[in-house]
Specification:
The structure holds three protein chains of three kinds. Chain A is mainly α. Chain A contains 15 helices and no strands. Chain A starts with a helix and ends in a 7-residue tail after the last helix. Chain B is of the alpha/beta class. In chain B, helix 5 packs across helix 6. The radius of gyration of chain B is 21 Å and the shape is globular. By secondary structure, chain C is α/β, with parallel strands linked by helices. Chain C has two domains: 197 residues, Rossmann fold; 69 residues, no CATH class. In chain C, the strands form two sheets. Chain C has an eight-stranded mixed β-sheet, sandwiched between helices. In chain C, strands 2-1-4-5 form a four-stranded antiparallel β-sheet. Chain C starts with 6 loop residues before the first strand and ends in a 16-residue tail after the last strand. Classes of the chains: A mainly alpha, B alpha/beta, C alpha/beta. At the B-C interface, helix 8, helix 9, helix 11 and helix 12 of B face helix 7, helix 8, helix 9 and helix 10 of C.
């Protein structure tokens, strides 16, 4: 088991190298350099040339790449062209915000979708199932931003229950006050984005239950005299949760990379909004750093999925 | 009189087993391990084995859909284990296959006409009318009504689909048809029908069959010569009489004794005999297999009858027995 | 004290109908059968004849929305038809054990096989966990599992087909049921394994003095193991007798045709017997007259009863319809 995990981690190394090379050349192809925005129109072009040379911008690509990678290992992802602060510090604040919002979203999303999936699967083709299906179609079909804006209009404008934007109120003070304010700010975006992300899980679970219900081993369990509700919980539900457990790895990726739309709509300072902002502002250093991080997280998420899968499913448990 | 159509020599199909930290090849699954058989023109050659014995892999290797590790398959004097020579000889036209599962082996979105015509289109240039006539003729041979051509596979029963599979397999006038458990999924009375059609077609067109099956009763009915396969190797080759009347290898005996007999009068004796053979198999296994559990190489006991006898002659009496019979 | 009656199961006028396009069609049509202690009753027939329907009706496992079961299935004066589910759960696995065709599919892929056997004990005995474990090991020994302790903790995919079926059998007999229903228990197995599993079933039956209902399409299996045989065609029993009579003096045209189509004939050059036509689907099954008549068209209509019923032609030998008296194969001269 540990051998396999270690091997999988080792396989990630070449993947990461390829990823970093791609990101590096992507960054090279983008217009601008570290001096963009720092210079005023009066700067002597010759002086600028000298500065660039000193910064190594005319070195051969492999040398630049090696330096770039070396910097990453030192925790230096470059300096933002726009904000003129290290990208790492820019990301650090946002990552934490995103983490809390996504965590809450995930918890709410699972607490809605698992019961819904169970109801739909259990009462296949009955009215309960049809109600869940309608809910599913609506949340699947409605564009996220329309849904969010409708939500804001209804609950923030008309009812005034929740704040419209931000991550914490400026006048919040003290540990508990700040925490309370933070929670107050993220609970509503979390609910909204949770509701709209239930579709996949509900559908997976429903299909899993419907398929497993007619499996031979369920009939065997019945033939042993196992009561109906136990057959459902112990045999059908447990086996149907398998694909959901394995998708959890990618969910964790999502926890850290955030959602561009919800963060933008709520002006919530997270990773997703940062990504969108850096595109709009052509902040290429931040952008490449984010792409690198997202790529790394995706690889990590896949690894986690595989590990989770091998824990929950003995058939693919690796020796 | 009997002209050979295909000669399999020392065929091996091995799959690598990977393990360890670096996932290196540490061993091989010897799915087919050094087997040689000769199939004559127009005959039915039975290949018997239990699940996992390698019989289906052998069939696939002969048709050319399973990469061969080593050995040769000679057809018209040419080794066809290389795809280039298969192409040159039109081998894929001359050798066809019938599968066990007729539903999954027929394209569900195609009509019967197209399913049967497909191999013809690959190898022959016929006009639409000629092609339709040919399909009608083929359906007629397997006893299907002429309006079948407009239907889809799911509109037929299992036995009818299997007959369509037979019609498709013989569409190109093949010399050899590899039939992999063609009737295992069918009911008894339907199986009878399919087997009868297979026999009629064979007589009419002089087709050779490699009949792969686990059912010794069916193989007995169909084939003149047969081979018994176990753990990827052949344990016994011989004529129907050699195998069914004078089996020599313990595995063959065990297999034969395990067939349920429709003889209620003697069922207790039969059961006793079966358990004795099973006991003998369990006790004497080490004698009949080498130290790695592999079947010994085949030895001639008569011109046609080959048995995987142990190195030492421990079964002399049985050989004598046979000669006496 | 429990009364040790010899009659385990008395099935009377059982009709099991499935709903297809809003209508109910009898898949098992007026079934009358009895199962005695120490008896192996075999129900034999081709696919779709209704043999498995009888099994699922006895054990009460069917889609209750789309299935209608009427008639009586009497077990110790208790009628299993329409029995309340929680009462039925006390009988299933406890008094009636069931063995299915595909041992891999019939085991939960994510549960250790030992735990799956122990689950039966959990619901029907008051053993504690340790006792259940010990009993499972004992059962594994009884069904000839080579390494019972190691096997306990294994998952179904780690076992061979034969060993999986032994697990399923251990599960079915864990509570020493009086009735064992085996639905095609050896169809998915190799012939040598089949022989071992059938021997095992016979041994268990002898030890526990239970009655076994063996459902199969394989006439060889029937001839080797059954005591009593019921032959089914089109949802009905067409012939019923002891095993010797069925194979040595079959009377019903269907039984005779089926036996004839076995590839066992001495003369290999001869064609196998083919039954004309095909089995009609459930919806198209004629509900009046002899259901097999259409497949023996050379027998005049007058030979069939208008409404064929079972006749006891000899003590214990029942045959449906009177057409057997004049039946002959097409290539035989009539009247033999």
């Amino acid at each position: 088991m540990w051998k396999t995990v270690l091997r999988r981690v080792l396989i990630m190394i070449p993947q990461l190298i390829i990823l970093s090379i791609l990101v590096f050349f992507l960054a090279k192809m983008m217009p601008g350099d570290p001096f963009t925005g720092q210079i005023n129109p009066n700067t002597d072009p010759k002086q600028l040339e000298a500065l660039k040379r000193a910064a190594g911008l005319y070195d051969p690509a492999p040398v630049q790449y090696a330096r770039w990678v070396g910097n990453i290992f030192k925790g230096d992802l470059g300096t933002s062209y726009i904000q003129h602060v290290p990208v790492t510090s820019l990301i650090a604040d946002r990552a934490l915000n995103t983490f809390w919002l996504s965590l809450l979203t995930t918890i709410i999303s699972y607490s809605i979708s698992i019961p819904l999936g169970v109801i739909a699967g259990k009462h296949q083709d009955e009215w309960q199932d049809q109600a869940v299906q309608i809910f599913n179609y609506v949340t699947f079909a409605i564009p996220a931003f329309v849904f969010y804006i409708l939500g804001i209009w209804l609950f923030c404008f008309l009812l005034g229950w929740f704040p419209i934007s931000g991550s914490v109120s400026p006048n919040a003070s003290g540990f508990w006050g700040t925490l309370g304010s933070q929670l107050y700010h993220i609970i509503f975006p979390a609910i909204l984005s949770a509701v709209i992300t239930t579709t996949g899980i509900v559908q997976y679970l429903r299909t899993g239950i419907v398929d497993n219900k007619v499996e031979d081993y369920v009939r065997t369990a019945h033939s042993k005299g196992v009561p109906e509700n136990v057959v459902f919980n112990k045999h059908i539900l447990r086996n149907s949760l398998l694909p959901i457990a394995s998708s959890f790895g990618t969910v964790i990726t999502g926890l850290l990379s955030g959602s561009m739309i919800i963060e933008t709509v709520f002006s919530y300072p997270g990773m997703g909004k940062l990504f969108l902002d850096s595109i709009q502002q052509r902040d290429y250093t931040t952008l490449t750093a984010l792409i690198l991080i997202f790529g790394f997280l995706t690889l990590l998420g896949n690894l986690l999925s595989d590990i989770i899968m091998s824990i929950v499913d003995p058939r693919i448990r690796i020796k | 009189m009997a002209k050979e159509i295909i000669e399999v020599k020392n065929l091996k199909v091995h799959y690598p087993i990977r393990s360890g930290f670096w996932n290196r090849i540490t061993d091989y699954v010897r799915a087919v391990d050094d087997i040689s058989i000769t199939i004559n023109e127009g005959e039915t050659y039975g290949l018997i084995g239990e699940s996992g014995s390698g019989k289906s892999t052998t069939g696939k290797a002969i048709v050319g859909v399973e990469p061969v590790t080593s050995g040769s398959i000679m057809y018209k004097g040419v080794d066809i284990t290389k795809s280039k020579s298969r192409h040159r000889l039109n081998y894929n036209k001359d050798v066809q296959m019938i599968f066990q599962d007729s539903l999954s082996s027929l394209n569900p979105r195609k009509r019967i006409e197209d399913i049967i015509a497909e191999p013809i289109r690959n190898f022959e240039n016929l006009t639409t009318d000629q092609e339709r006539d040919r399909v009608q003729e083929l359906l007629d041979i397997v006893g299907m009504p002429s309006d079948s051509i407009y239907k889809y596979p799911h509109e037929f029963s299992g036995g009818q689909r299997q007959r369509i599979g037979v019609a498709r397999a013989v569409a190109t006038n093949p010399r050899l048809v590899v039939a992999d458990e063609p009737t295992s999924a069918l009911d008894l009375s339907v199986q009878a029908q399919v087997l009868n059609f297979m026999k009629h077609i064979q007589q009419q067109y002089n087709i050779a069959y490699l009949f792969i099956s686990h059912d010794l009763g069916v193989v007995k009915h169909m084939s003149e010569n047969l081979a018994i396969m176990h753990r990827g190797r052949l344990v016994e080759i011989g004529s129907r009489e050699d195998i069914y009347q004078h089996p020599m290898h313990i595995y063959t005996k065990r297999l034969l004794s395990a067939i349920p007999q429709v003889d209620v009068e003697h069922r207790d004796e039969h059961k006793k005999h079966r358990q004795e053979v099973e006991q003998e198999f369990q006790n004497d296994q080490s004698k009949w297999y080498d130290k790695d559990g592999r079947v010994f190489p085949l030895k001639h006991v008569s011109d046609n009858h080959l048995v995987a006898l142990p190195e030492k002659e421990i079964i002399e009496e049985e050989t004598n027995d046979k000669e006496g019979a | 004290m429990e009364k040790q009656s010899d009659l385990l199961l008395d099935i009377q006028h059982l009709h099991t109908a499935y709903r297809l396009n809003g209508k109910f069609y009898d898949a098992a049509d007026d079934i009358n059968l009895t199962l005695k202690r120490n008896e192996i009753l075999s129900i034999v027939g081709e696919s779709g004849c209704g043999k498995s329907t009888i099994a699922s009706s006895i054990i009460g496992l069917y889609d209750h929305k789309n299935t209608k079961v009427t008639g009586d299935i009497l077990y110790n004066e208790l009628n299993l038809v329409g029995l309340n589910e929680s009462l039925f759960d006390k009988i299933r696995g406890n008094k009636i054990g069931m063995i299915f065709q595909d041992p891999l599919a019939s085991l939960n892929p994510l549960m250790r096989v030992g735990d799956q056997v122990a689950e039966t004990l959990y619901y029907h005995t008051d053993m504690d966990e340790k006792e259940r474990h010990a009993r499972v090991i004992e059962l594994f020994n009884q069904v000839g599992m080579p390494k019972p302790e190691e096997t306990y903790a294994m998952y179904p995919f780690e076992l061979s087909g034969g060993l999986r079926q032994r697990v399923v059998i251990a599960m079915a007999v864990a509570c020493k049921p009086e009735i064992i229903i085996a639905d095609e228990p050896t169809t998915a197995l190799d012939v040598t394994i089949q022989a071992q599993i059938l021997d095992l079933l016979e041994d268990i039956q002898k030890q526990s003095q239970s009655g076994i209902i063996l459902i199969t399409h394989d006439l060889g299996v029937v001839a080797e193991t059954a005591d009593e045989v019921a032959v089914m065609y089109g949802g009905q029993i067409v012939e019923k007798a002891d095993v010797k009579t069925i194979f040595e003096h079959p009377l019903h045209p269907y039984t005779r045709s089926l036996l004839n189509s076995m590839p066992q004939s001495e003369d290999e050059e001869e064609d196998l017997h083919v039954i004309q036509g095909t089995v009609p689907s459930l919806q198209n099954m004629p509900r009046k007259g002899d259901r097999f008549a259409a497949r023996i068209p050379w027998i005049p209509a007058s030979a069939h009863e208008e409404n064929p019923v079972m006749h006891e032609v000899e003590p214990g030998h029942w045959v449906r319809c009177t057409c057997w008296k004049t039946f002959h194969f097409q290539d035989e001269v009539s009247g033999e």
